[in-house]
Specification:
heterodimer, A: about 300 residues, alpha+beta, Uridine Diphospho-n-acetylenolpyruvylglucosamine Reductase, domain 2, Uridine Diphospho-n-acetylenolpyruvylglucosamine Reductase, domain 3, Enolase-like, domain 1, 5-stranded antiparallel β-sheet, 11 helices, B: alpha+beta, Ubiquitin-like (UB roll), DNA polymerase, domain 1, 5-stranded mixed β-sheet, binds flavin-adenine dinucleotide, binds FE2/S2 (inorganic) cluster
């Protein structure tokens, strides 16, 4: 158990507009922190891991509360929308099954009532449960600063544990997720030592798009959590699978390749060899599930 | 700042670093809300924030300005226990009682959104509440019986 201490003095601001927020972030020092649900940030402050002099609570910024979907524009998840809202949002349930699965395993009901997807990826834990699903779906992060806005492809977002491509003075506004193409299916499965309320030992998301004419795979995406310093795609395994028609042997081979690509460490939750084995098992399971949803296997 | 707890308005001065849990227990003296882990893991500090269950140990008091908080002290009405509280007594779902306020509030928020849950749904809903004593079966039974009353 980590020791809990009282939190050092800091200034608290809760701006009501995006402009005001970006102004604050522009002039604040590098030890300012953005506060969304606080389920990572407040804990880290209590543990003395970070001691920000300024905390900017962005929950009142209207742009960050957006949750919308349309066919062309895709899904827009504002940076302060709590995870519990995602798991009941009709468009997510109907079209982004993989994302609903990932968000609903994070923490407890209490954690999901506060915690956000933006906070999950900004915190950039290698085990962040929403990351593999977002990587598979081709998501991007819209970030803004007083100089304007830009979109960061999630493939370029994670830099190191706890470190992202968000620059000083930048704020994440929302996460954009394109509408999944027709004839696609995906699935996220994580392994934990306990059933609930635990951090993933390994998490795997797979996402497949079928060419309906010849039943080969037009595109295959596989993303892995907790087996490298950041959430990662298994590019080699993806390339091997793309263009093929799926057989049990091929699934086996892809799982093997993904396991070989993983670069896990040993820690309290599991050894490197155990994690590699889990990658193999979970890639196989997520692929089987996606394939059966596409009607390719029983 | 202004804060509304169990229907009553309070005006208090708080340091930004103090948690909602801290304020409830030590400023407002509502000690029904318990601190177990202080890290979001045990659920004993659960309160309702605008009707939703949250861990008050991971919320700064200053974040809830203008919002409504319900603690275990606010559940009974005119001296009559809430059906969930009565069910916990009737089913013997309380041993040391440390986890009980948090479990009951989590269950209340859950039943408000899902009045006729299955046993599995109840177990998932209270996954964020640890109990060292009862082994959960009686807790689940109590919540189940409260749905029937
Ligand atoms: C008991 C418990 C269980 C948990 N279980 C899981 C789990 O199973 N899986 C999992 O993946 N995580 C888990 N977590 C971690 C955490 O709940 C999630 O990562 C959550 O999604 C974080 O979101 P938040 O809104 O609370 O982030 P915050 O704590 O508010 O912020 C996290 C970080 O992101 C930064 N940030 C937030 N918003 C922005 C923004 N808009 N722009 C720029 N930076 C921003 C903050 O400055 C901070 O550094 C758990 C935490 C607890 C306490
Ligand atoms: S004291 Fe808040 S969850 Fe344990
Ligand atoms: S009754 Fe003792 S912890 Fe639950």
């Amino acid at each position: 158990m980590t020791s809990i201490r009282s939190i050092d003095r800091f200034e608290y601001r809760a701006p009501g507009s995006l402009d005001e927020t970006l102004d604050i972030l522009k002039t604040s020092g590098t030890d300012a922190k953005v506060l969304a649900g606080g389920t990572d940030l407040i804990l880290q402050m209590k543990q003395g891991l970070i001691r920000p002099s300024l905390v900017v609570d962005v929950k009142k910024v209207p742009e960050l509360n957006r949750l919308e979907w349309d066919e062309v524009g895709g899904l827009h998840v504002g940076a302060v929308v709590p995870l519990n809202k995602l798991a009941t949002f009709p468009a997510i349930l109907e079209r982004y099954n993989i994302l609903a699965q990932a968000c609903s395993v994070i923490g407890s009901a209490q954690v999901r009532n506060r915690g956000t997807m933006a906070g999950n990826i900004c915190n950039a834990a290698p085990s962040a449960d929403s990351a593999p699903a977002l990587l598979c779906l081709g998501a991007g992060a819209v970030v803004a600063s007083s100089n304007g806005a830009r979109s960061i492809d999630l493939n370029d977002f994670f830099v190191a544990p706890g470190e992202t491509a968000i620059g000083d003075g930048e704020l994440m506004v929302e996460i954009e997720v394109p509408t999944p193409p027709p004839h696609s299916a995906g699935c996220y499965i994580r392994h934990t030592t306990r059933e609930e309320m635990d951090i993933a030992v390994v998490g795997v998301a797979s996402f497949l798009t079928l060419s309906p004419q010849d039943k080969t795979l037009k595109e295959a995406r596989i993303a892995l959590g907790a087996v490298a310093p950041t959430p990662v795609r298994a590019h080699g395994a993806e390339a091997f699978l793309t263009g093929k028609s799926v057989t049990p042997d091929i699934i086996e081979e892809v799982a093997e390749k993904a396991a070989a690509e993983a670069n896990p460490i040993s820690d309290l939750r599991g050894s490197a060899e155990y994690r590699r084995e889990l990658v193999r098992v979970l890639v196989r399971r997520t692929l089987r599930e996606s394939c059966s949803e596409l009607g390719l296997i029983e | 700042m202004k804060i509304k707890v169990n229907g009553q308005d309070y005006e208090i001065t708080v340091e930004p670093g103090r948690t909602l849990l801290d304020i409830l227990r030590y400023e407002l003296r509502l000690t029904g809300t318990k601190e177990g882990c202080g890290t979001g893991s045990c659920g004993s500090c659960t309160v309702l924030l605008d009707g939703e269950a949250v861990n008050s140990c991971l919320v700064f008091a200053i974040e809830v300005e203008g919002k409504e908080i319900t603690t275990i002290e606010g559940l009974s009405q005119q001296g009559k226990l809430h059906p969930l509280q009565q069910a916990f007594i009737d089913e013997g779902a309380v041993q040391c009682g440390f986890c009980t306020p948090g479990v009951i509030l989590t269950a209340k928020a859950f039943l408000d959104s899902n009045p006729h849950p299955t046993e599995l749904e109840i177990r998932q809903a209270i996954a964020g509440n640890l109990c060292r004593c009862t082994g959960y079966d009686k807790i689940v039974r109590a919540i189940m019986s409260a749905t029937n009353s």
